[in-house]
Amino acid sequence: MSALWTKASAVAATRGTAQGPDWAATGVSIDTRTIEAGELFVALKDVRDGHDFVAEALARGAVAALVSRVPEGVGPDAPLIIVNDVLEGLEALGRAARARTTARVIAVTGSAGKTSTKEMLRDVLGRQGRTHAAEASYNNHWGVPLTLARMPQDTEFAIIEIGMNAPGEIAPLSNMARPHLAIITTVAAAHLEAFESIQEIAHEKASIFEGLEPGGVALFNADIETALILDDKAKACEAQRIGFGALPGAGLYAEDIQLGEKSSVVRGQFQGRRFLFRVGAPGRHFAMNALAVYGAACLVGADADVAACDIGAWSAPAGRGQRETVVLDPVEGWSFELIDDAFNANPASMGAALWVLTAVNPTDGVGRFRRGRRIAVLGDMLELGATELELHAAIADHPAMELIDRVECVGQRMRALYDALPDEKRGHSFTTAEEMAAEAHHLADAGDVVLVKGSKGSKVSLVVDALRKQSERRRTAADKERN
Question: Which positions fall inside the Mur ligase N-terminal catalytic domain (predicted)?
């Protein structure tokens, strides 16, 4: 593997002071738990001070460490680059990596769908050129520079996810990434603890256009009520403006979206040509994300027809709408469908997930109840501000609720939804995900379809894990019985 950073190039980028022998790093890490031999360790300070782990990182094979002081337990000849501030040093690496590449860079933000869009872009563009993208949801003040610092010089397509929790966070990250194309998937009620209105959120999201390279493209959702704010900002930034959506007038226009139980089909027009593609995941929100991906692929020079085909091969990642079958009885063929959307939640993404649940048909005639049910396991939506309880209770009035048989609620905020539900739809109200996970074997029966959705902090992923383990528990019990 070729060197990503050498001692000389890292010193030049950070203007730090180096000690120890020469080295060449094949990667960049901030975590000793996952660090690999040959990587440069960056001693960031977060919950723990990374300097406390430098000795361990070097023992695990790190070729050097980026630090602001010589840590205890590290010898005077240890390979270190010493800077005034480690985060600023990481940012300098990121800017240097961006400057030395000729990659077409895409930045993605949005109140929902940015990680799924980034992953879809990774898959689609990765089939047409050397592609680099952020890991997981590395989209904050350290995630963006880390993603850039890890970018190989010969990258052809780069996808940088940019998130925010408060005003003023997106523009500096976009200026660091310097994208040729910036995507805003949608604007919705999220992080309302830090913003007074959706309009304020739209202005913050639109600040991603400030980092666009000259002649860059602003690609944004034209169907939302704040689209004019996004368009005005793109115009002020002298960007090429393209709205995508299903409403007439969108530059990237989906004139027909057919939603299916396992996939969707999108037909439309862009840049004077017609397109048709299948999205390998159910739900209108995934169809809209795929529309943006198709447009982005065209705009950065990828083959449009190949991209359209490859979108159909994409499937939702774990925690973001991934669908799987949990087998309860392999002999009888009894199972239930699980939709794992447990990574994050806000009112917009919650509504989208409920529509996905209604699109999947349960199976009747199996299990204890003889009638398959649609069951929603919903955890707290976090960072919604002063109106959080009203926003949770409002889910009871979502049109999709008419087709949902039972709702299980997790968390103090979701208690507001539980209280607003009609009696026939109420399941249980648990204070914590741990409590619900302990009762997971009572939640679903053969033939059911179960959606699990909530903010990461609600820990509803524990419920997903407990539901999955039912198949292992039943299989183990059956094996013991046969023996």
Answer: 26-93
Whether residue 114 is annotated as binding a ligand: the answer is yes
pLDDT at 390 over 50: yes
Question: Could you tell me the CATH number of the domain that includes residue 32?
Answer: 3.40.1390.10
Q: Indicate whether 405 belongs to any domain.
A: yes
Do 81 and 113 belong to one domain?
Answer: no
**Is 370's pLDDT higher than 80?**
no
Residue 113 assigned as binding residue: yes
Q: Determine the Cα angle at 253 with ends 251 and 258, to 5°.
A: 170
- In the structure encoding, which two tokens stand for residue 371, read together? 């009638």
160 and 306: one domain? yes
Read off the pTM.
Answer: 0.83
Tens of pLDDT along 12-53?
A: 999 999 999 999 999 999 999 999 999 999 999 988 899 999
Domain limits for position 67: 5-85
**How far apart are alpha carbons 278 and 290 in whole angstroms?**
9
Count of CA atoms in the C-beta half-sphere (13 A) of 231: 13
H/E run at residue 9:
helix 7-14
112 in a known ligand binding site = yes
Q: For the residues 225-249, what does the mean pLDDT come to?
A: 97
* Among candidate residues 273, 280, 285, the one with its CA nearest the CA of residue 309: 280
Name, in order, each residue with C-beta under 8 angstroms of 477's C-beta and a sequence gap of 6 or more: none
Question: Does the annotation place 437 within a ligand binding site?
Answer: no
DSSP class of 385: G
| Residue 8 CA, distance from chain mean position | 35
The burial class, CB within 10 Å (0-12 / 13-18 / 19+), for 11 is middle
Residue 229 has pLDDT above 80, yes or no: yes
Report the pLDDT value the prediction gives residue 189, as an integer from 0 to 100: 76
Identify the CATH number of the domain in which residue 259 sits: 3.40.1190.10
Q: Is 115 annotated as a binding residue?
A: yes
pLDDT for 372-381, tens place per residue? 999 999 999 9
